[in-house]
Amino acid sequence: MEKIVNNTIKEELYHEKLDNGLDVYFMPKRGFMKKYAVLATDFGSNDLEFIPEGEDKPIRVNEGIAHFLEHKMFEQPDESNAFDLFSEYGASANAFTNFNMTAYLFSATENFYECLNHLIDYVQTPYYTEENVEKEKGIIAQEIKMYDDDPGWQVYFNCLKAMYKKHNVRIDIAGDVDSIYKITPEELYKCYNTFYNPSNMVLFVEGDLEWDELIEAVKKANHSDIKALSKEIVRIKENEPEDIAEERITEKYRISMPKFNIGYKDVDVNLRGEALLKKEVESDIICDIIFGSAGELYNELYMSGLINDNFYGGFYSEVEYAFTLISGESENPEEVFKKIEQYIEKFQKEGISEDRFERAKKKKIGEFLKYMDSMEFIANNFVSYAFKGVNILDYLDVLKKVELEDVQKRLKEQFVKERRAISLIEPQ
């Protein structure tokens, strides 16, 4: 066991790697009534080609399989649903799949250890049959069709498709109706046995608990027959070119006002640990200065009636890819695009003032400290960062070390016009 103490934010973190490879983390939250646990695997919708555990040749699985597998984890061999027992214990449970990971979680004020045992047990109990897999296809097909009718979802994915030529991030997390109807129990088991191994997973717990009691409960709940992977997972990835796939994708939907996404593709990727976190912090500060509601651009666009309060600009960072995304609604999107470009060029030419930088930095510090009171924020971000080699407790220390010169340099790299893609949805 190792104990990590961060004196800056006065938080403690306990960590132990079990014999089966599972990384267990615990953050004490004294005085909190609620307890929170999330069990996550480093497996998301992007992981479509890999060498399965126990085999030596790569396979490519159907798109949407990580999301499909998440759905199927709740069905148990006795045909019960894992959610039902959480309800009996008075807990709130959920799960989600994104591009890079799948997570199963619950929060509870009582019966915590019963819930924790149940969480570990059902995630370690796969049950896929021809019948229950076939039944799930219709359910997920309806979910996919629902998102197909969501203009906000489509404008986002069209922007990803415009930015990326080969990377799987351009593929919808749920896949499409054709791909999910091709999924088989055998394929699900290959994914499960490879990616749901404890050595590819993280368990994070927080609450007013004791470490010794917690780690003993985790060890007892783990299935004794599951061993760590025999070798490191080999994921097959295509090299993504630096240039974008398309400059613009435009579609028409039944909406009253045009929606847009502007994406700036980042090419400084394959970073991990502090290097990744530092770039993320610098980029976030820049986005807050240029696109934030207290900035000149937002106020000019808003006061002139060009945007509403749905306008937002942010940076999205993963190990293999990263991009800046600006989203909003406007009756005159072309004018908005022009104004955004003008402001970016202005900041790149003139730089950011020391005063503006310090204000943005202090704002980020305040936001982070506020979020540290949210169990959901801490837990879900902890596991996401953990798979990128980052400890979320280091966030504030990295933020404080960022200097104005770092941000000025990053500003030149973050927005390259040749790597800008626009997604626009117009009224029919």
Automatic annotation (TrEMBL):
GO biological process: proteolysis
Boundaries of every Peptidase M16 N-terminal domain copy: 62-175
One matching Pfam family: Peptidase_M16_C
Sequence ranges assigned to domain Peptidase M16 C-terminal in this UniProt record: 182-363
Family: Belongs to the peptidase M16 family.
Matches recorded under PANTHER family: NARDILYSIN (PTHR43690), PROTEIN YHJJ (PTHR43690:SF17)
Protein name in UniProt: Insulinase family protein
Lineage: Bacteria, Bacillati, Bacillota, Clostridia, Peptostreptococcales
